[in-house]
Specification:
This protein is of the alpha+beta class. The protein has helices spanning 15-24, 37-42, 77-81, 90-97, 102-107, 110-114, 127-132, 161-167, 266-272, 279-290, 303-322, 327-337; strands spanning 8-10, 28-31, 50-53, 63-66, 68-72, 171-176, 179-184, 204-210, 216-223, 234-242, 248-256, 263-264.
């Protein structure tokens, strides 16, 4: 049986109180739902001396609307899915409903999924297994076993909601004892399996802000080994703004699980702007989106195949946004990977 290591637990009631704790406890980590951190602690991947719990902070659990929607980072995935104010943000809802199981969505939070630890076949094992291969660069070792000559860790980003939120133009507010700053969500990631967040250890991801979606359509497609309860090995989030005559005015395409951070494909989005979502334009955009995808041999399925199907998934997403009925295709993918 895997057991948690010893740790102290603090339960602040406000964001300011939590920020002060982080500032005074350099070895502390934040925990909300704990669906990612606690299993990692059992495997000794993360061993903080203190956990600062966020579940008692009511201001992190609020959803409000105005100019777009503001989501507290402590909102559970289940609460997010049940809120009518988010119904127009299709990609986010499609991403959230495909995370884990109903039980875990009742615990896991939107902030936790945004900050989800990167994953790797060599890293996501128990302590004894990792010790047997001489550990890896991400924890306790010096070598990335995915690519032994790599100067950096190649563990992969496996968050579902981040690609969808980036495609929707989300910004986030980071709070600390020194104040708060608001940045585009894409700016909190870097392409490094160990230091995958630019968020500082003393900062708390407090809120997610989504702009209005009038004129926008969005969608999220996910490839995984099992039809449910599994991390993505490829995901595609796409959003387009269409004029009344069907011309694309703006477009964003974001790939997940193909690098240590969500990968934007601006060239693919630019291909679509100024014309309709024709078959030829969709194929051109799919080719452009696949170019920045660099899947590595650190998750499931052959990496060459994952690179190839990136084009297919971008095509599926864009045809759905055009208005094609892609229900049968979604079902066939679920049957394929079971």
């Amino acid at each position: 049986m895997l057991r948690l290591p010893y740790f102290d637990y603090r339960a602040p009631r406000t964001i300011a109180e939590a920020a002060d704790m982080l500032a005074s406890l350099p070895d502390a980590m934040l925990v909300a739902g704990g669906t990612d951190l606690l299993p990692n602690m059992k495997r000794r991947q993360q061993v903080p001396s203190t956990l600062v719990g966020l579940r008692q902070i009511e201001e992190l659990k609020q959803i409000s609307n105005g100019d777009g929607v503001r989501i507290g980072a402590g909102v559970t995935l289940a609460a997010l899915l049940g809120d009518e104010r988010l119904r127009a943000y299709t990609a986010l809802r499609q991403a959230a409903v495909q995370i884990a199981t109903p039980h875990l969505r009742n615990m896991g939070t939107i902030g936790g999924n945004i900050c989800l630890d990167t994953r790797c076949n060599y890293y996501d094992q128990n302590y004894e297994w990792r010790k047997a291969i001489d550990f890896c660069m991400k924890k306790d070792g010096e070598t990335c076993w995915v690519a032994t000559s790599s100067p950096r860790c190649l563990a992969v980003s496996s968050t579902d909601t981040a690609p969808a939120l980036i495609a929707l133009g989300a910004t986030v507010t980071l709070a600390s004892a020194g104040g708060a700053r608001t940045v585009p969500l894409t700016d909190i990631y870097r392409n490094d399996g160990i230091h995958y967040l630019t968020r500082q250890p003393h900062e708390i991801l407090a809120t997610v802000r989504l702009p209005g979606v009038v004129g926008w359509r969005s969608t999220y497609w996910k490839l995984r080994r099992r039809g449910s309860f599994d991390f993505p090995v490829l995901s595609v989030a796409a959003a387009v703004k269409l004029s009344r005559d069907g011309t694309v005015e703006a477009s964003r395409i974001v790939l997940g699980a193909v690098a240590s951070r969500p990968v934007e494909a601006p060239e693919a989005g630019a291909v679509l702007v100024g014309g309709p979502l024709s078959d030829a334009q969709i194929a051109h955009a799919a080719d452009a989106a696949a170019r920045p995808a660099r899947p590595m041999d650190n998750t499931d399925f052959p990496l060459v195949w994952r690179k190839r199907v990136t084009r297919d998934f971008v095509g599926y997403a864009l045809r759905e946004l055009r208005g094609d009925d892609m229900t049968a295709r979604r079902r066939s993918i679920a049957r394929l990977v079971l």
